[in-house]
Design a protein that fits this description.
Elements lengths: L1 E2 L8 E4 L3 E4 L8 E7 L2 E9 L4 E4 L4 E3 L14 E7 L2 E9 L9 E5 L8 E5 L11 H5 L4 E3 L7 E4 L5 E4 L7 E2 L22 E12 L5 E8 L13 E5 L7 E2 L8 E7 L5 E6 L8 E6 L2 E4 L8 E7 L2 E9 L7 E4 L7 E4 L4 E3 L6 H4 L16 E5 L2 E5 L4 E4 L12 E4 L9 E5 L8 E5 L6 E2 L15 E10 L2 E11 L8 E4 L7 E2 L5 E2 L2 E2 L4 E4 L6 E4 L6 E3 L7 E2 L15 E2 L1 E3 L7 E5 L2 E5 L7 E2 L24 E5 L7 E4 L5 E4 L6 E3 L3 E10 L9 E8 L2 E7 L10 E4 L11 E6 L7 E5 L4 E5 L10
Parallel strand pairs: 1-54, 2-58, 28-32, 46-51
Antiparallel strand pairs: 3-61, 4-5, 5-6, 6-7, 8-9, 9-10, 10-11, 12-13, 13-14, 14-15, 16-17, 17-18, 18-19, 20-21, 21-22, 22-23, 24-25, 25-26, 26-27, 29-30, 30-31, 31-32, 33-34, 34-35, 36-37, 37-38, 38-39, 40-41, 42-43, 43-44, 44-45, 47-48, 48-49, 49-50, 51-52, 52-53, 53-54, 55-56, 56-57, 57-58, ...
Length: 760
Amino acid sequence: MHARSQFEPTSTLTQQPYHWQNVAIGSGGRITGIVAHPADPDVLYIRTDVGGAYRWTGSQWQQVLDWIPREHANWYGVESLALDPNDPAKLYIAAGAYPWLDDQAILISDQFGAQGSWRAVPVPFTMAANFADPNSRWCGERLAVDPHDSRVLYFASHQNGLWRSGDGGQQWHMVDFPTNGTNVFHPSYEQGTGAGLAFVLFDPNGGRTAEGRCRVIYVGVSGDTSGGLPVEGTGAYRSDDGGDTWRSLPGWDAAQSPMRGAVTTKGVLYVTCQSNWTQPNGSVKKYSAGAWHDITPQSNVNYVGLSTDPQQPETLMVSEYCIGQCRLFRSTDGGTTWHPEIGAAAQVDMRPLPWFDEIVCHQPEYRFSSFALTSTVLLNGSVCWLVDGWSAWRCDDIYAVERGESSRWTAAPHGIEEVFAFELRSPAAGDAVLLTALADMDGFRHTDLDRYPPRIHGEPRLRNTSGLDFAPAHPQFVVRVGETWDQTVPHYGAYSLDEGITWTPFTASPFVGGKPAHSGKIAVSADGQRIVWLPVNGGLFTSVDRGTSWRAAQGTPERCLISVWQNHSPLAADRVNPNCFYLYHAGSLYRSDDGADTFTLTPAQLPRIEPDTRWGLPSMGTDRSVHLKAAPHAEGELWLSLDDAGLWLSRDGGVTFTAVEDVTQAVVFGFGVPAKGNNAPAFYMYGTVRGIAGVFRSDDLTAHPAHAHWTQIDVSPIRMGAFTSCMEGDGRVYGRVYIGTYGRGVFVGTPPEQEVNPVE
C-alpha cells in the first residue's frame, strides 16, 4: 500500500549559487553542421543534433544555448544555423530535436549568441535535428537569410514544405512550392527515409526584385534514397522572382538525392548527392550556363559535405558520406580535376582528445566520420574545418598535399560536450572520482574532472554502456553492460576488480528471445558476490560467478525495459543487505530476499508509469522517467522518483511508500556525502519543489522527509535545460553533484568554495 505524508509539510526552501561546468570528456556526439560569416570567417558556429550550438572563441567552443529552460529542452536539437550576411552579430537557430514534440522555435540573437540576447519565436512547422534517419541530420542549412534584405528568411522543412518570413523571423508563411520532398515514416519506429527539403541558397549575383529581395534562390529536394530508386520531385529548384514562383532545374537524375549545396561568387551552383545507402552511387553536380554537369570525384561513393572558397570561386571541397574511411576531395578548377585530401594518409594530432584512438580501435582510416556517417567541411583560404560524429577538426594548410606533404589535422574539441549519459557512479573510496556509462563511446573512469580521460573503459569495447554499478563494501568491484559496435561479439558485459582500470568480459550471457542478452541495467549486491542483470526485452537474471553462468530470477515480469533510450532505471540492490534486490514495474514493487533468485510482489500500490511505446520504441522527450535507488546508509530504505507523479520513500523494504509532499516532480536524483555533523546522506534532485523547478540539495530529507530543508542550486546562468538522464552525488566531497544529460554531456556542480577550474 501507499500513503500520503501524515505530517503537514514544514520544509523551507533557500537558494545557493553553485559553480556548474562540464566534466571533461570532449565532444562525443554528432556535430551536423558548421557555418562562418561571409564577411568575417572568425565568426564561426557549429550545430549538433541534441547538444545545442557552439561559437568558436579563437581557442575553444562556447555553448550558446545553456539559457534554455527545461520545459523547452527540445530546443537543444539544432536543425539549422543562419547568419545575417549584413550583420555578423545576428544569429538564427532553427531549434527542435524531435518532430513528435510540439515545441519547435526559431531562436534569434543579435549579440553573437550571448546570454540574455535571445528571443524565441514558436513556429508552425516541425524540426527533426535528432531524427532517426541520418539523411535529415546531415543536410545543408535549411535556414537562410536573404543577403539583399535581412528581414527575409526562408526555412526548408523536412516534412512541411518551404516557409518564408518577411519580418526577421517573427512571423512565418508557407510558400507555394511545387513539392514537400520525400519523408516516409516507417510504422515500426520513428524514422524517415528522406530528408524532405534539404537546403536553401541565395545567389546575390542574380540581382534584386522590385521589393528589394534577392531574386535568385535555390532549394534542394530530397528523395527516398533507401533503395536508390528514382523519386519524382527530387532535385534542385530555382526561383528567379524572389521566391514567388519556382521551377525544377531540368536534367536532374531523380535517383540522386541532394544533401548540401553551395553558390559561388560567380553564381555557379554545386550540389552533393547520395543514392542508395546499401550500394552507394552518389554524385557531385555543378549547375552553370543553364545546364547540369557531373563532376563526381569517384564513383560508387555517396557525398554530403560541400564548401567553396569565398576568395577563390573555382576551389571547392566535398566529403564522402560513409561509415569507415571518410575522404575529402578538393578541386581548384571547378570540379574538372580533384585531389584526394584526407583518409588513412592524413596526419592527425590526437593529443587534444587522448581517448579517441581507442574508440576507432587504432584504425587511422576511421579517424574521420567513423560513426557520424558523414563529414561537413568549411573552407576559407588555406584553413579548413571538418566536423563529424565525434568532434571538430582543423587543418591550417590544406594545400600541403600539393607540395607532396600529408595534410595535418588537429582535434579541436575544447568546450564541446555532447555525450549522452546512461549512468553515473561515484565510489566512496579509490582513485576514481566518477565512473560514467555513455552512449556511442562506452564510458570512462575519471580521476580528474578537469582533464579529458586517457582511455575508454576497455574490453569489451561497448558502443553503449547502459548499465553500471559497483559493490558498496568493495567499490573496486565494478560491472557494466551494454551493446557493442560489432554485433558478432557473443557477450555484452564485463567486470573489473580494480575500480575500472582493467575489465574482464563475461564469458556467458543469459538469452532473451533466442539471442544473447544485451544492454539494460545492472545491479551488484552490497558485498559484490552477486550480479543482477535486467536486459532489454527480458526478465531478470543473476550470476554468482561473475558472468560465467546466469539463471533467471523467478517471480518478475518480462520486458520491464524495452529500450536503452527510455529514461527508466527500475532495478536496485540494497546497499546494506547483500541478499536484497528491488524492481519497480508499472506501479508495482517486487522484492527479493534470497539474492535475486526469487521475487515477490509487495503490497505497495504506486503510481503506474510505463514507457511510451508509440511506434514500437520509446519516444525521446515524451517518456516519464523512473529511477529506483536504495539509500547508502540504511537497509530497506528505498527512494523512487516517478517524474510528475513525485518522489516516494519506503523505509520497510518496499512494503509501504510515502510521497514527499513538497515534491511535485522528480525526474532524477542521487545521494552524496553527508553534511558535516549529519549521519544521513545529502540528497540531490532535479525536479520541482514547492512549485519551483530546478536542481535541489537537501541535507536532511532522508532523516526528516516532511520537515526537510531544500536548497535550490541551479541559480547560475546554466539552468540544466537539456533532457536529464541520471544524477549522482559525489562519494567523497560534500556538496558536489553530477548530472547526466541527453546530449549536453555530464555536468558537475560545486558550491563556490569548491570551485574547479575549466579545461585548458
